[in-house]
# Entry
Amino acid sequence: FGWPLIIGNNYPYRAFDYTTGKSGDFFDPAKPINNSPNNTGLTELPAAQAAFIWYQYGASKEFPELGAGGRTAMAGPVYYAKPGASPYPNYYNGKLLIYDWVRGWVKAVTMAANGDYVSMEPFMGNMSLAAPIDMEQGADGKLYVLEYGKGWFASNPDAALVRIDYLKGNRPPVVSDLSIAKPGGLLPYKLTATVKAKDPDGDALTYVWNLGNGIKKTTTTPSLTYTYTKVGEYPVSVTVTDPLKASSKSNTITVFSGNEYPSVAIDLVGNKSFYFADKPINYNVLVTDKGATVDRTKIFVSKSYVEGFDMAGAQLGHQQAVTAMIGKVLMLKSDCGTCHKEATTSIGPAFIKVAQKYKGDPKAVDYLSNKIKKGGAGVWGEIPMPAHATIKDADLKEITKWILTLDDQKSVAPSLPSKGQLVAEVPSNKKNTVLSLKASYTDNGAAGLKPLSSTYELKLRNSLIASSDIKDVSNFDVKEMQQTQVLQLSKATGWLKLNDVDLTNIKALNINFDNFVEGSVQTEVRLDHVNGPLAGSSNGNIMNLNKIADGKFHTLFILFKQLSKNDDKVLVKSVKFESQ
# Structure
């Protein structure tokens, strides 16, 4: 309990003077002193207590069961068996469950009667969770886990609230993912589906494919091809069964026979890996729609700057715009436009008036969708609105959502041009920013089918890459200095690896060392292999690079060789790509 002065097994940090930029003495775990000018509490703090369990990025000598890698320690509940029929073996009664958001494991910790640590072991060792962020024991005695999903700050498809069941004897198959190569196409539409499934007991599996409209096919392999000859929306799923009839069902994916998703891409002129402050980015959105003519006025383009992988916030406004576009296309395909206009009154009220009337009503989508379906009169006048029983419920909701956006156009930012130039900025209030450029296109649907939308996202990294974002290294150790992560060369030579780097218009590499001494280290950049073609070398922190304009994405190996014979450590804080 000495944080942020003390960490782990009472390992002290050093005081840092921000006015001089120099480090002072180590804090004393037996007598921590908080002399911060912002401190409003005690100056002399109680003695620090060592952590119950502690571990670093590398392998832990004290707790080798925890492995190595990123770290985000989480403490779950102490499991207590529910009186009567316990959902788990009594072996786990009284054990502490710990887990790690980054590493994905769960460990069961055995403690002595006084609470001291005894040992730990894997809990569900054959299963890795998708970034567990919370774990609680429910009223039924079972454990419930909230999985954040693999993407940082993202609307993750693998995010879930899961319950952990203990199954004695034969265990059902584990189905993890159903994928469809092309979820729509013109007639005849050929479906190619695959599923990831395994049996914990090693049994042979049977796959029963539900292809919609009563169509079922059985295979003994986890893949299927099938050709649809009729227009329609078909929900596709698969049930996987073992020889003892234990089964698990996959997720469901709706495919569209008779309409193909439009293809969307973004073409860039220049570097395709990074953005640079105040440098223009020339882009062009490319759209093809098989069997139809592309209307470029329906292309929606947005940009956002997100911190790290904060993609959930970046997607929000864009998703609203795409939803609005789908709803508007569905409205135009119906007869709604006969009696209603967007901003002016016709036989029926203007859509914007409807949006204003129901603004902020949490039940508006359901109420208005039902109203459109069943029809009605008396709210806006005596002329009745006819029923629209043939419009699907899901489509009615999309139309209603579009109507409700009309009152607050600020919620849907206007689209950028489908072809143009934007000037990149480096937000001062965010770190490790990614420039997200997204383009969407919604087609007009097909006979009996709703419009389909496709989105393409282009991510450009900040040209300044912090050491904390460099994960693939050789002979470098992770160190923390003034609560900032740096990479320290642990031997005479080592390298850092950066993936997917386009060197178009890159003139130099600026390596930010801590306490750098000119001539103390030699650096090289090599392409695609540690012994690959040499792209540049230097004995300083600035390395000029050869002109490479092949437009390819390369794997960069930045090689380091310590030249000085003293005890100066090679500490890398960041790497920056300089543009021409």
